[in-house]
């Protein structure tokens, strides 16, 4: 039958994702993918999983397999309430809600807030998954400038002074894709600005616990509690396959987010929430986190050193204190995508940075490199190869 | 901050759910709830869960905790491909897609197909969770008549002849809320009609395996493969807290459903999909199903007998061969909701049937009774009490 003529307008406007096409090339055997954004399987606490499962069934029995409330499994929310105090977030279990991964909240945000044509302010570059969640609701985007210190507060203020945005979407720590972190001074300044303009800020914080150097920074939410929806996930510090995220929103926003979540998925997997709860309750996260950090830190170091050694002098890159990505900027006028096929032929894949910009033509000279999935020696070799490719005349 | 003025129009139009308010009364201690729609925890295969978990980690290791493709965990889709042949559905793993519960697909259907004002044809009465998933996308509903034999094909044909509907949504077997099953002859007739009018049918099939008497019927999908999106779930035959549903859609529709699912939740929990896969692969479902049936069948029998014994002569009710619900119709002009508070005072809760109708004023004399959550003796007593309440003059 003809499905095409049944599609909603929002669906018709969804293009085949260019990045998906590009990433298809990555699955070639022998490929070293610096293109992904996924945690190393060695970072998962496989050894404690049987114990976690045992605790879940001992403690919750059949409740762990039953339907649960949309807001989230209460014991997990209670554990998060205790855990988040150390991240400068003091909230009761009632204020913490569980989502089906971070993606689940991004979609719910789109559903609750975005009317076709609405403006959403995003970092340039920004996270693709957020755009993918928001796009079906038909927003327009306005880009906030970034530099080495993260979001430029003056750029945000100018946007808020000139236009009305539905919300601002930021990843202040070890941003995907840029790896950049918004400094403490700027976090405070951004908190002042959103309060001054009574603007809603979505603060996405998946990576902050993956810190290899330097000091943890408080989230913007801690400086502007009534104006920020804070969101994070267990995907990078436990296991992404469990699809457990969480959020703290101003109460009125939270009640709408819950209401739409009920229509989206009823609730997030009870069993997986119970596992996450026991992961926190048993102190397992505190034991696992140093292991994850000591797995990733040398990989990042190897990549940074290889970039320094091999990359052409006119290239610059971020040197984040944590996270999963390094952002490389080539000389102006350079088109990184043009080298993609050649790199893939040499078995190295990356993501051309232009895909992370909402403005056409922006970021042509940039690329995102991920270092979590390969060994140090493989990373070093891949960067050397990539440097050779980039030095080849087109 | 003022969240209200940031809401999308679709959100503003979401009313506080009247049924939620009604169900709040149910949590009173001592309440016998015939209002729910959830499986008995005794139906969960608790005894085999440790073995299932062990098999998952033995077989898949860290893959069970990693990100997975949006389409679903391949081994689960392969097991479903084999399993569904017995349900008259012969499809390859590529054609079977995993969803985050049935709700996940209902939401995706709304997102892919529904434009504000679009007509969706639904049974009268129909499943509330489907309306909750579709409503944010702004459809109008048109009701298809039902009788004791299920959907009335002539009513469906009249609708399709007169108007253009985006899709038809049916639960042909042991329907929620009515318990009714659309007969084999009518299934074939409906298949002819959707093909004749080139209409898209969503066939929701959560209950068909819960059959206590009579013979299994083939799904409508088996008679009109190109026009039907078939969907089902592990919630009633394994565990609802795992949130695993699945669907088989015409290929073009499937590709759009996958595309939007990526923005909604990336993918469904890998770990839970692996558990469901091993549940099928190990033959555990085949062993558990007779246990579930022998748990529910006597409950249903007890409720039917108590209705016969205690309910006033002017009441009629469905006598389904399976499922989780019995549908009671009072005399015309009767308002079942008016008795709700009195029933709750006597510690018996039910759902007034009017909530399952999309047309205002319909179904005032109806109620939905669930029998899965209480013992036979409790059910018998509750029905006797409810009969007393209904006999009281208002």
Number of strands of chain A: 15
Distance between the termini of chain A: 46 Å
CATH superfamily of the largest domain in chain A, please? Type I PLP-dependent aspartate aminotransferase-like (Major domain)
Work out the oligomeric state of the chains in this entry. Answer: homodimer
Which structural class do you get from the secondary structure elements of chain A?
alpha/beta
**What value does the Rg of chain A take, in angstroms?**
21 Å
Backbone shape of chain A: globular
pLDDT < 50 runs, ≥5 residues of chain A: none
Break the fold down into its secondary structure elements and pairings:
Two copies of one chain form a homodimer.
Chain A lengths: L8 H4 L5 H7 L7 E2 L15 H12 L13 H12 L10 E5 H13 L5 E5 L4 H7 L5 E5 L1 E2 L2 E2 L1 H10 L4 E4 L13 H13 L4 E4 L23 E6 L10 E5 L2 H15 L4 H12 L2 H27 L5 E2 L7 E5 L10 H6 L2 E2 L1 E2 L13 E5 L5 H16 L3
Parallel strand pairs in A: 1-13, 3-4, 3-7, 7-8, 8-9
Antiparallel strand pairs in A: 2-10, 5-6, 9-10, 11-12, 12-15, 14-15
Helix pairs in contact in A: 3-10, 4-10, 5-6, 5-9, 7-8, 11-13
């Amino acid at each position: 039958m003809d499905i095409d003529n049944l599609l909603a307008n929002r669906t018709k406007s969804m293009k085949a994702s260019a990045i998906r096409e590009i990433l298809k090339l990555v699955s070639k055997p022998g490929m070293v993918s610096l293109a992904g954004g996924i945690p190393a399987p060695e970072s998962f606490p496989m050894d404690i999983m049987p114990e976690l499962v045992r605790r879940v069934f001992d403690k919750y029995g059949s409740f762990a397999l039953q339907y649960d409330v949309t807001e989230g499994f209460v014991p997990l929310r209670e554990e998060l309430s205790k855990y988040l105090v150390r991240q400068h977030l003091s909230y009761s279990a009632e204020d913490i809600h569980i989502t089906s991964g971070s993606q689940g909240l991004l979609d719910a945000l789109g559903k609750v807030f975005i009317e076709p044509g609405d403006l959403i302010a995003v970092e340039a570059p920004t996270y693709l998954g957020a755009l993918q969640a928001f796009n079906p609701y038909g927003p327009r985007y306005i880009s906030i400038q970034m530099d080495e210190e993260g979001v430029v507060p003056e750029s945000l203020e100018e946007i808020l002074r000139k236009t009305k945005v539905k919300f601002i979407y930021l990843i202040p720590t070890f941003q995907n894709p840029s790896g950049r972190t918004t400094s403490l001074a700027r976090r405070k300044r951004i908190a002042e600005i959103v309060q001054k303009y009574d603007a809603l800020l979505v603060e996405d914080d998946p990576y902050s616990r993956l810190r290899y150097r330097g000091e943890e920074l408080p989230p913007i939410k801690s400086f502007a509690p009534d104006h920020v929806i804070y969101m994070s996930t267990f995907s990078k510090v436990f296991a992404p396959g469990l699809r457990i995220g969480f959020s703290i929103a101003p109460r009125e926003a939270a009640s709408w987010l819950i209401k739409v979540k009920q229509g989206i998925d009823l609730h997030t997997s009870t069993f997986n929430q119970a596992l996450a709860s026991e992961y926190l309750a048993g102190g397992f996260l505190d034991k696992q986190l140093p292991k994850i950090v000591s797995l990733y830190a040398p990989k990042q170091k190897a990549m940074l050193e290889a970039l320094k050694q091999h990359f052409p002098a006119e290239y610059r890159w971020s040197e984040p204190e944590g996270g999963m990505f390094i952002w490389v900027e080539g000389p102006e006028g350079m088109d990184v995508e043009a080298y993609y096929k050649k790199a893939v032929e040499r078995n190295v894949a990356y993501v051309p940075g232009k895909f992370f910009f909402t403005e056409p033509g922006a970021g042509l000279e940039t690329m995102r490199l991920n270092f979590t999935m390969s060994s140090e020696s493989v990373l070093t070799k891949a960067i050397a190869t990539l440097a050779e490719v980039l030095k080849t005349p087109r």
